[in-house]
Recover the amino acids of this structure.
């Protein structure tokens, strides 16, 4: 029994129909626990006051915005190398979800930035990088929409995703070179000294878990929809030819 | 020269022809026949290596094919000579004089392609085959917009090419007036409307 | 390959080739900017390097879809794909032809437009150097975008959407080099990074563009 068996659409549909309710339930549970815990049962920050609590939306959304792109990159590579259609469709399904997370990260960042930095928007390297990431998502989605033939679209978007990834990394460093910025350091890292305090840290972890589950659930759901759409198209095609 | 076994070709992901087997030997002209939409263009593009077959094998020597599709690949602002010289250089060939002579383009040699009539332009597109130096010509509806005299001229060029050890595969409806083996594609029309074993059939 | 380069150059400079359109656009853009931001010399000279870079970038973008679309429409691309030249070489040569007819002339007229925008005297050398090193990357990245969108009916708009985000690093390094040079600061670092970027795109983009072309020709 190999992992690649789930690349068979039939197997994938079976497995995903079993998994989906559990993943979705877990997402709801984690998000409820994490956000309620974070919003109501943590102390206010001594400097930032209650505004710091937006961290429970901002950080997980930002994290998933990047991870969604990485997932799309991996799925594109799998499509190029192994030609599994489910993989290409999963990449397609993930793009709007990733874009939404990027927009959430940008919006919550603006709401947080207003009281902290006194401005809704600053051309800070991190903010700018996320804006560029949003543009990459837009281009990727537009490419999928523009090409009629599904396999051609999968091939072209995969190439675009690969090249885009290289340029996304380049842009990140170029932007750092361009402006040093206001944004605080990473909220989470292996280096314990930089991390936020424990009281904030545990609910944050839970809500990150919730966002991960939410992402997986949405991608599973959307991939199922894409597969059904492909199937529908094939059936209509057959009807027309008969 | 070229041997094709059990070929299945698809247009836009939908199989159009399956089980096609054919072979071309030096000196031979193979004429593909079949109603519109049967997949002649798709087959030629697959044989020319422009698109992959769904399955089946194509055995061909390297640097074999000169392909001429529906469009001529003629640049309007370049002269006849410039157009031909460009393709001769790309294919590493020297002279374009025989090609000009064979298609009666000598008098038009210095005229810009945009000032040619449709038939003259088509002749220029066909003359391009001669400057490639490739042995197997693949022609997709080569006689479109040619008058009777030009068709005879073209048939003569194909015959001369075959007599010199070349070969040609043509998709055409009209009778060119020379002995070519005729392959009717109608029996090979694909039955299934989706690729066998393909993604769309993989689940119900 | 040489034949292809010569043909593309000949096509570009003959009637209807579009040569000069990009240059004219660049000129008009630089003339319009002062109307938008006001005629104060101090403000203009401060934003001049950035405006010149953005103008060059947009002028480049204007002619990108011609790189492959014309050859695709008239069937030349099919013939080139079956010719004994690697498609990677074809894309590289076509990007080079695009640069020779767009990037290079833009670089050469940029100092003239710098005068219009009050570019400080120290800036001219750095402006020309940064454009000379950066515009090849613009052409190469653009060739990739053009290859991606070549078969599409309304590819032009999508082409801009795909290519503009890819231009971000080039624009940042290029404009930084020009701006730092104009301000009398050290401009060598961004210039070196820009040269590295161009070299990197030269090494990678022809392969990516050829891959996209093969997919689109199917």
């Amino acid at each position: 029994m190999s992992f690649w068996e789930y690349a068979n659409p039939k197997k994938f549909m079976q497995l995903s129909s079993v998994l989906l309710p559990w993943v979705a339930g877990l997402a709801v549970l984690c998000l409820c626990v994490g956000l309620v815990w974070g919003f109501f049962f943590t102390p206010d920050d001594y400097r930032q006051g209650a505004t710091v609590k937006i961290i429970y939306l901002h950080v997980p959304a930002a994290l998933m915005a990047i991870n969604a792109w990485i997932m799309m990159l991996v799925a594109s590579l799998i499509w190029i190398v192994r030609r599994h259609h489910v993989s290409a469709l999963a990449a397609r399904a993930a793009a709007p979800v990733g874009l939404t997370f990027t927009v959430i990260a940008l919006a919550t960042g603006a709401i947080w930035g207003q009281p902290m930095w006194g401005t809704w928007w600053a051309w800070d390297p991190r903010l700018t990088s996320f804006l560029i990431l949003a543009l990459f998502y837009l281009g990727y989605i537009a490419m999928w929409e523009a090409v009629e033939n599904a396999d051609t679209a999968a091939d072209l978007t995969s190439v675009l995703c690969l090249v885009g990834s290289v340029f996304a990394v380049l842009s990140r460093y170029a932007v750092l070179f361009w402006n040093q910025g206001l944004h605080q350091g990473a909220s989470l890292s292996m280096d314990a000294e930089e991390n936020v305090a424990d009281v904030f840290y545990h609910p944050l972890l839970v809500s990150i878990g919730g966002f991960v589950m939410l992402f997986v659930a949405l991608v599973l759901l959307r991939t199922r929809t894409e597969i059904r759409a492909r199937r529908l198209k094939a059936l209509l095609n057959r009807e027309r030819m008969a | 020269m070229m041997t094709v076994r059990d070929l299945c070709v698809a247009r836009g992901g939908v199989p159009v022809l399956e089980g096609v087997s054919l072979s071309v030997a030096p000196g031979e002209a193979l004429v593909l026949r079949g109603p519109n939409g049967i997949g002649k263009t798709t087959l030629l593009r697959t044989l020319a290596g422009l698109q992959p077959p769904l399955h089946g094998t194509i055995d061909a020597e390297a640097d074999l094919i000169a392909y001429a599709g529906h469009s001529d690949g003629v640049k309007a602002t370049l002269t006849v000579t410039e157009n031909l010289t460009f393709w001769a250089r790309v294919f590493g060939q020297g002279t374009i004089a025989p090609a000009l002579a064979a298609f009666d383009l000598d008098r038009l040699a210095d005229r810009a392609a945009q000032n040619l009539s449709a038939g003259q332009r088509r002749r220029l597109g066909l003359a391009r085959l001669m400057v490639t130096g490739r042995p197997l010509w693949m022609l997709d509806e080569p006689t479109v917009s040619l008058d009777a005299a030009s068709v005879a001229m073209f048939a003569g060029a194909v015959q001369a090419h075959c007599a010199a050890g070349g070969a040609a595969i043509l998709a055409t409806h009209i009778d060119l007036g020379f002995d070519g083996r005729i392959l009717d594609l109608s029996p090979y029309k694909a039955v299934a409307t989706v690729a066998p074993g393909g993604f769309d059939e993989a689940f119900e | 390959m040489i034949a292809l380069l010569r043909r593309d150059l000949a096509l570009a400079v003959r009637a209807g080739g579009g040569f000069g359109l990009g240059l004219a656009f660049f000129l008009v853009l630089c003339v319009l900017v002062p109307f938008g931001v006001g005629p104060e010399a101090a403000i203009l000279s401060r934003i001049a390097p950035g405006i010149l870079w953005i103008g060059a970038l947009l002028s480049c973008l204007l002619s990108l879809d011609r790189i492959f679309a014309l050859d695709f429409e008239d069937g030349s691309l099919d013939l080139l794909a079956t010719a004994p030249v690697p498609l990677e070489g074809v894309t590289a040569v076509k990007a080079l032809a695009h640069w020779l007819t767009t990037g290079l002339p833009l670089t050469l007229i940029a100092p003239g437009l710098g005068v219009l925008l009050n570019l400080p005297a120290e800036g001219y050398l750095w402006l020309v150097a940064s454009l000379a090193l950066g515009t090849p990357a613009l052409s190469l990245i653009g060739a990739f975008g053009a290859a991606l969108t070549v078969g599409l009916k309304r590819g032009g708009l999508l082409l801009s959407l795909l290519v503009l985000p890819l231009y971000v690093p080039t624009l940042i390094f290029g404009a930084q080099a020009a701006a730092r040079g104009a301000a009398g600061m050290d401009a060598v670092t961004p210039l070196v990074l820009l040269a590295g970027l161009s070299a990197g795109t030269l090494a990678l983009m022809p392969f990516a563009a050829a891959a996209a072309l093969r997919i689109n020709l199917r």
Observations:
- The radius of gyration of chain C is 18 Å.
- The CA atoms of residues 177 and 191 of chain C lie 6 Å apart.
- The mean pLDDT of chain C is 91.
- Residues 2-217 of chain C form one domain.
